[in-house]
User: Which sequence fits this backbone?
């Protein structure tokens, strides 16, 4: 185990760059902050490149650290450099990013969530975590969506990225591929022809598109879906947060 005491150490500078999308894409890795996320990566066979922690944290989790993965002891000062939290827990892991793209024609099984230009990392992370809870097979981040491996999105995911497939792609291609293979693709949109989500029979194989927080789905996508759905609102609120709406729709549509 190597001990690093200087914030100017080259490894520390490299790990700091993982807080940015540019740094993550350049290295092909991202940073997990906190024991829960590190443990999820270990338990679910995440591709760990390194574990970094303060002496206290490494001692506390010594028995659970993976064999064959480099471990670095760091100072509290370095821990603060690696985290965007005011008081970080003090343990981190560098993990490989998943495959950036997968071909939709080879994936036509289970329930899938398509995210169309979702901008808020907290919303993205919450929707991935909810898709995991609802038993979805995967999530596709459409072009224009925020980077799902930013620190805020990762905290909202709570490790769910290790429980299902995540990938990035052109949602028009994914929608076309699913519908051509006999799978329903549902959009979420308020229009006269949209159906109440609670009137659609629960099923096991389909895709659900959630549109941008302000603009909704792209018009092109809305025209490609099997059917567009809405969530009936009984109270006086004009709309639901997109992550809340996604949760309602996913649990309504997914057969147990």
Assistant:
């Amino acid at each position: 185990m190597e001990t690093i005491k200087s914030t100017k150490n080259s490894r520390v500078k490299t790990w700091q760059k993982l807080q940015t999308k540019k740094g993550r894409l350049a290295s092909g890795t991202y940073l997990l902050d906190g024991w829960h996320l590190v443990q999820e990566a270990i338990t679910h066979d995440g591709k760990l490149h390194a574990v970094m922690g303060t002496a206290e944290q490494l001692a506390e989790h010594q028995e659970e650290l993976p064999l064959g993965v480099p471990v670095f002891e760091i100072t509290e000062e370095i821990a603060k450099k690696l985290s965007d939290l005011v008081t970080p827990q003090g343990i981190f892991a560098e993990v490989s990013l998943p495959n950036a793209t997968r071909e939709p024609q080879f994936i036509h099984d289970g329930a899938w969530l398509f995210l169309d230009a979702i901008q808020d990392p907290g919303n993205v992370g919450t929707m991935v975590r909810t898709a995991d809870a609802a038993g979805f097979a995967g999530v596709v981040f459409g072009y224009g969506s925020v980077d799902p491996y930013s620190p805020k999105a990762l905290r909202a995911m709570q490790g769910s990225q290790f429980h299902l497939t995540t990938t990035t792609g052109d949602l028009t291609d994914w929608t076309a591929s699913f519908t051509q293979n006999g799978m329903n693709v549902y959009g979420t949109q308020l229009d006269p022809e949209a159906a109440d989500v609670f009137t659609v029979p629960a099923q096991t194989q389909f895709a659900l598109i959630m549109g941008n927080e302000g603009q909704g789905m792209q018009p092109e996508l809305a025209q490609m879906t099997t059917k567009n759905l809405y969530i009936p609102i009984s109270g006086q609120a004009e709309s639901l947060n997109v992550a809340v709406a996604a949760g309602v729709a996913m649990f309504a549509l997914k057969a147990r």
Notes: The CA atoms of residues 211 and 217 lie 4 Å apart. The first strand starts at residue 2 and ends at 4. Residues 121-133 form the longest helix (13 residues).
